Amino acid sequence: MLEFAEVQPHNRKTFFVEVILPLAISRNYTYRVPFDMNGTVAVGKRAVVQFGKSKLYTAVIASISEQAPEKYEAKYIIEILDDAPVVTQKQLKFWHWIADYYMCNEGEVMNAALPSALKLASETKVMLNREFEFDKTQLNDKEYLITEALDIQPELTISDIVKLLGQKTVMPILKSLFEKNIVTISEEVSERYKPRRKTYITLNPVYQNSDNRRELFEILEKRAPKQADALLSYMKLSRQQKAVLKSDLIEDSGAGDSSIKSLIEKEVFFAEHKTVSRLSYDEGDELLSNFTLSESQETALAAVQQHFEQKDVVLLHGVTASGKTQVYIRLIEEMMAAGRQVLYLLPEIALTTHIIERLRIYFGSSIGVYHSKFNDNERVEVWQKVLRNEYKVVLGARSSVFLPFDDLGLIIVDEEHETSYKQYDPAPRYNARDAAIYLANMHGGKVLLGSATPAFETYYNARLHKYGLVEMTERYGGVQLPVIEVVSISKELKQKTMQSHFTGVLMEDMRVALEQKEQVILFQNRRGYAPVLMCKVCAFTPKCINCDVSLTYHKHSGKLHCHYCGYKEDTPTVCPACGATHLEYKGFGTEKVEDELSVLMPDVRLARMDLDTTRSRNSLQNILNDLEEKKIDILVGTQMVAKGLDFADVTVIGIINADSLLKYPDYRANERSFQMLAQVSGRAGRRGKQGKVVIQTYDPNHRVIKQVIENDYLDLYLTEMEERKSFKYPPFYRIISIDIKHKTPEILYNQAEYLAAELRKHFGERVIGPEPPLVNRIRNYYIKTIMLKFEKDGVSVVKAKALIRDTITQFQTTQLSKGSIVQPDVDPY
Predict the structure, then answer these.
(1) Which residues are recorded as binding Zn(2+) 1 (predicted)?
(2) Region class of 20: left (phi > 0), else alpha (psi between -120 and 50), else beta
């Protein structure tokens, strides 16, 4: 495989490039390189290619050879977009591994890996045929509207026309105009990423002389007073800052853009256009690195370093608030001193924005941030800075594993147990924790997994000595773990001491904390106002028209929402089934908790942190800032509040309903419940004062709740592992699940049964199902799941995956598979 095309001018060679297209196709496609592009093609560059009849795509060059494809005639590539590769050789190897391990296609990996601004859009352009005369009176209303718009604007995209007409189906109208020879249609690729440019103004050196400047000012004051104002503003601003931005000059002087333009034309000012970063960080003058580790942190750091001499992966199992972050910082400093890069993975954007402020104090502008709240252009900018090795440390969510690292020395996976590291839809359905281990191995780097409640698979590997294990058993500064009190909801209901959804114990603890100017976090793992609206007469419950779930009432919108597909409908006042007016709300979410608390405690400053309140870019950071600045007394939230937040004055945690976690039909329910309860509890009393956690439940004697109270992770682990072994679950077995989807349930039944029968020919009793999942219809697709369980020893999972792929491919070639979607998921969570 050639990395760059070798050009020999006297003996012209014909090159072919294998490219990765951003499509779910099972093989990479090969294109021919025009002779004049021989010197510009290189592995990792982007090329514009035609695929299909008219569609243009951006593809990434994966390899270069002189071998033409045997089965088809290679088309020519149209254009090379980059001067230098934007994807590295190591990344391409990583993409290939992801596609292979998680049973998807490299195009799907490319789609997940590349920021969307680096993937070009094939925009269909529509223009008037100026050479053809037509009678507008013969057109219908919508055709007339399009031609009128094209008279004003020379070209429109399909998306422009969709907005213009207010409807999605515009192709038939365009087809009609095209057939009448009124419009021409062409495919044109548009580059979406544009560097951010700012204009800086400097004064002509001639006018640095005070006499010349005074003379100029007198002339301008008489003839162009606005220009004189601009000159005065420039002199003032240039004393305050080295470079004067044109926008600042316009704002300060009140002069318009035309006045500045005139001064540039007169060569009083010179304008310089510079590419600037979109990533504005306020960096302190002084960086802090002189903190002192406690004795237990020093011991943990030394143990991690010792393990890294023998092991590539180490688990740092430290109780909440044990000070794991400071240990991370010391390890990052070591890597930076060695000139290597560090990736710091976090499961949630909430945690990323919170912890970045802490890390900036130590590392300043050498740390980059990468997550989905960044817009397209910002994501490209981070990508390019990593590619140029400008960022030594990158802190981000799971997609950060796809960045173009050159020499990755350390990956820290904080809160490694979190399910947020797993991508569910679309493919690749990868787990960033597991992918990070492979990625670090590729770079010859190390991985540190940190958690107070490790995933059982991770802990199992540590106990087998596959990973190093370091434990931190005490909180930083000697602060004790919070006191946990379990309160029976049933008992308080009998005693009539409940106030709405709050027990008397929780109400009293909140009141005392607020009197002492402390803060409270309330956890309810369900958003919205009420999960179910039910008719008291006939028990009718409104359901989503697209999914097999009941709709959740949201008070802020006054509508019923589906949390799976986004469908909304007005809340009925009369039962659609029996006509009764007795409709009531069952259950409660964070919105209702906040609403009812505002009635019970009207003077308390409340805030809510869930998906609904953190949709906009800065909303989440604003909530965290308000909590830190004590503008919030009580924060109500979903699982977002459980992950790594560190606030000095939060002393009381209320878990409103622990049963919603414990009574879930999943083999991981107890593990997840313990993790969630322990993590939420860990937010209390992190600095100085011991905190308190109130767990409200109908089942106070539940085994997991007792294990949480005693902070007995080992007992939970040993108990659950016995069950996992008996019922053939991870970590003793590997699981691959296959979802089959179809819009007709009867057809789906036959398809799923056929595929399961074909798989049983190869794997026998290892195949379980097909069975409907918990939610068996989403977005109008009915779902069946086939599960395959493979022993860890004696079975080649690589061969098993190859057989599964072949079986799925064979199924998709049959007439029976028509209309189906087949989605394999390796290591599902």
Answers:
(1) 535, 538, 575, 578
(2) beta
Q: Is 173 helix (H, G, I), strand (E, B) or coil?
A: helix
Measured CA to CA, the distance from residue 253 to residue 255 in angstroms comes to: 5
Query: Closest Cα partner for 648 from 349, 358, 395?
Result: 358
544 is in an annotated binding site: yes
pLDDT at position 287 over 60: no
Beta carbons within 8 Å of 524's beta carbon, 6+ residues apart: 588, 589, 590, 593, 636, 637, 638, 656, 657
Of 66, 99, 118, the one marking the end of a domain is 118
Same structural domain, 104 and 166: no
CATH of residue 335's domain is 3.40.50.300
Pairing of strands 468-472, 313-318: parallel
State both tokens at 516: 């002492």
Question: Is 678 domain-assigned?
Answer: yes
Is pLDDT of 816 > 70? yes
Supply φ then ψ for residue 773, to 5 degrees: -75, 180
- Give the whole-angstrom CA distance, residue 322 versus residue 344: 18
In this prediction the pTM is: 0.78
779 by Cβ neighbours in 10 Å (0-12 / 13-18 / 19+) ranks as: middle
Q: Does the residue 724 lie in any domain?
A: no
pLDDT above 70: residue 377: no
- Do 234 and 306 lie in one domain? The reply is no
* DSSP code string of 625-682: HHHHTT--SEEEESGGGGSS---TTEEEEEES-THHHHS-SSTTHHHHHHHHHHHHHT
Domain end position, chosen among 166, 190, 214 = 190
The proportion of the chain whose per-residue pLDDT surpasses 70, expressed as a percent, equals 89
Q: Per the structure, how many domains does the chain have? A: 6
% of the chain residues with pLDDT over 90 = 35
> Could you tell me if 114 and 172 lie in one domain?
no
Q: How far apart are the first and last CA of the chain?
A: 38
Per-residue pLDDT, averaged over 363-385, amounts to: 78
pLDDT tens by residue, 396-446? 889 999 999 999 999 999 989 988 899 988 889 999 999 999 999 999 999
Residue 194 has pLDDT above 90, yes or no: no
Report the pLDDT value the prediction gives residue 685, as an integer from 0 to 100: 60
Work out whether the CA dihedral 347, 352, 354, 356 comes out positive or negative: positive
Tokens of residue 169, six digits:
């189906």
349 pLDDT tier (thresholds 50, 70, 90): low
Same domain, 808 and 671: no
**565 annotated ligand binder:** yes
- How far is CA 638 from its chain centroid? 17
Residue 353's pLDDT band, with cuts at 50, 70 and 90, is low
- Domain holding 36, by residue range, is 16-118
The candidate with the shortest Cα–Cα distance to 408, out of 464, 472, 340, is: 340
Minimum mean pLDDT among 274-278, 591-595, 716-720: which range?
274-278
Same domain assignment for residues 371 and 450? yes
Which residues are CB-contacts of 704 (< 8 A; sequence separation ≥ 6)? 662, 670, 673, 674, 677, 716
653 and 507 fall within a common domain: yes
Helix (H) / strand (E) element for 342: namely strand 341-345
The per-residue pLDDT for 786 is: 96
The answer on whether 104 is annotated among ligand-binding residues is no
CATH of residue 753: 3.30.70.600
Residues 641 and 500 in one domain: yes
Same domain, 692 and 778: no
Per-residue pLDDT of 101-145, as tens digits, reads: 999 999 999 999 998 767 754 455 778 887 777 777 788 888 889
The whole-number pLDDT of residue 185 equals: 63
Residue pair 485/695 in contact by the 8 Å Cβ criterion:
yes
Does residue 542 lie within any of the structural domains?
no
How far apart, in whole angstroms, are the C-alpha atoms of residue 111 and residue 93? 16
| Contact criterion met (CB below 8 Å) for 443 and 300 | no
